[in-house]
């Protein structure tokens, strides 16, 4: 039977509406930081973003800084930003395929960046590469050996980008498919269902689409979906609202917002 969030007085959505936050932690597994030339962000400094995380009840935001992804800021500098806000900020080390020496020297430092660096961020299309290109081999082998997360930017052209082939080649890396291969939902589901159990769909941009969260839960199960926002591109409240408003069970909602990632990374990271 279809569930309406307004029918249930004690629903999670009602709690969010009344209290401004949920009574369990929420993990945002896909964020950014800093200005970007494509858009004007009013609140994109670490201080402003952390204030917003506190307001919305986010336990950790795992982000990659725009300047880092564009090659202008070292991963080590992003670690320093995290250290300023140790309770809230975690990072993905940005992997830029054109900077092979930096990839090697950065990954040699990865353990020293604990607990701030939790995984790697790869944006093949932004860096004019396919995920299966040899320039990613060193980083993906590293993630595979360590069994750490790799957040990969994906969109509807995912089937042409070598994603399925790559996740099969590195069966122990934990792949988070950012934006759930937006639009190529069947392909995203195939990546989850026909992999080694090492693939999760990350929801950034999806909560604005009616009916898609329900469809993804049906296709892969809520245990394989993670919450993310692209903050400051999208907002925590909008994205949490989209998940709470989806026609899925409260268990599904809790899996997406915190249980799945706590199963993967624990509660103390
Ligand atoms: Zn992003």
Q: Helical amount among residues, as a percent range?
A: 25-40%
Q: What's the CATH class label?
A: Alpha Beta
- Overall pLDDT score: 94
Number of helices: 11
What percent of residues are in strands? Answer: 5-15%
Structural domain tally: 1
- Coarse structural class: alpha/beta
Characterise this structure.
This protein is α/β, with parallel strands linked by helices. Helices cover 39% and strands 15% of the residues. The protein is globular and about 55 Å long. The protein has an 8-stranded parallel sheet. The termini are far apart. The protein has a single domain (12-16, 23-265), classed as TIM Barrel (Alpha-Beta Barrel), CATH 3.20.20. The protein has helices spanning 12-19, 46-56, 66-69, 75-84, 100-109, 137-146, 163-169, 185-193, 212-220, 236-245, 250-265, and strands at 26-31, 58-63, 89-94, 117-122, 149-153, 174-178, 199-202, 225-226. Bound molecules: zinc ion. Zinc ion binds at residues 30, 32, 178, 230.
Key attributes of the depicted protein:
269 residues, TIM Barrel, 8-stranded parallel sheet, 11 helices, binds zinc ion
Brief sketch in words of this structure:
The chain is α/β, with parallel strands linked by helices and about 270 residues long. It contains eleven helices and eight strands. It is globular and about 55 Å long.
Chain-wise SSE layout:
Blueprint: H1 12-19, E1 26-31, H2 46-56, E2 58-63, H3 66-69, H4 75-84, E3 89-94, H5 100-109, E4 117-122, H6 137-146, E5 149-153, H7 163-169, E6 174-178, H8 185-193, E7 199-202, H9 212-220, E8 225-226, H10 236-245, H11 250-265
Parallel strand pairs: 1-2, 2-3, 3-4, 4-5, 5-6, 6-7, 7-8
Bound molecules: zinc ion.
């Amino acid at each position: 039977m279809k569930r309406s969030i307004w029918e249930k007085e004690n629903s999670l959505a009602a709690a969010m509406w009344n209290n401004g936050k949920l009574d369990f932690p929420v993990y945002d597994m896909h964020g950014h930081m800093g200005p970007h030339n494509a858009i004007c962000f009013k609140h994109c400094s670490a201080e402003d973003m952390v204030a917003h995380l506190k307001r919305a009840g986010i336990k950790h935001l795992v982000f990659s800084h725009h300047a880092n992804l564009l090659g202008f800021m070292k991963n080590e500098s992003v670690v320093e930003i995290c250290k300023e806000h140790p309770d809230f900020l975690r990072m993905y080390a940005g992997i830029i395929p054109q900077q092979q020496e930096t990839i090697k020297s950065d990954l040699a430092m990865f353990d020293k960046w604990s607990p701030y660096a939790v995984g790697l961020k790869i944006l093949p299309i932004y860096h004019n590469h396919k995920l299966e290109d040899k320039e990613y081999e060193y980083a993906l082998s590293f993630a595979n050996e360590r069994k750490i997360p790799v957040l990969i930017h994906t969109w509807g052209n995912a089937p042409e980008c070598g994603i399925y082939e790559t996740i099969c080649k590195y069966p122990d890396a934990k792949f988070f498919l950012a934006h759930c291969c937006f639009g190529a939902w069947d392909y995203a589901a195939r990546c989850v269902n026909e992999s080694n159990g090492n693939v999760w769909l990350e929801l950034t941009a999806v909560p604005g689409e009616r009916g898609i969260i329900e469809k993804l839960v049906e296709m892969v199960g809520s245990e394989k979906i993670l919450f993310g926002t692209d903050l400051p591109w999208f907002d925590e409240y909008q994205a949490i609202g989209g998940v709470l408003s989806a026609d899925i069970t409260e268990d599904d909602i809790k899996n997406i917002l915190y249980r799945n990632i706590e199963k993967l990374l624990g509660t103390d990271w």
